[in-house]
Amino acid sequence: MTKTKIVTSLLNNFMFEVTKEINVEYAHRLLNYEDPFTGEPGPCANLHGHSGIVRCTISGNLLEPNCMVLDFKIIKHILKEAVGTFDHALVLEEKDPLVDVLKDQGIRLVLVDNAPTAEYLSVLAIVSINSMIISLHVKNGLDIDQDDGAIIQRLCEEKLCTKIEWFETAKAKATVNLTPDLLISSIMSVRHKTKQDQNMN
Ligand SMILES: [Zn+2]
User: Fold this and answer.
1) What is the CATH number of the domain that holds 115?
2) Ligand 1: distance of its center to the CA of 145 in Å?
3) What are the tens digits of pLDDT across the range 189-201?
4) Ligand 1 mean position to 50 CA, how many Å?
5) What does pTM read for this prediction?
């Protein structure tokens, strides 16, 4: 057997990570932020912007016939869908009093349930990206109504977004790694969307 053929026979035993990143320019503020050392209101409570970078890592076996975990073009598309909503937007916590002031001013507002920190935005991104990847699996025959354990087992054998790194600046980033809870949130989101689509038809 040639060396190439030996490698080919082992291909499905390898685990791969593929990574893609995009730029996200966004503004936000952290309501009631206090300086951790002085207890005084801190600069993060003021409206300010970031030239952020969001890096997405997809892990999986080499299952595609084209020797890819997932085409970089598809990852870019998914990443844009999941994170593009924050680009050139003002991201505020829903309860922020600025929401009432700014909502009719033609400003692109994105409202979130918690403080729009890099950590929280990473969580939103990984759930959204995995929802899209699970939808791809559903298109390929995955039964979304099975119990969570069976779905998770199947997904873990294929491909998932396992890490989001959200750079607020070149020197400060938050990383979230995939957990079973985050995966269940993604599965629930796909079930919800599937039901919505069925109701519309
Ligand atoms: Zn900030």
Assistant:
1) 3.30.479.10
2) 39
3) 999 988 888 888 7
4) 6
5) 0.91
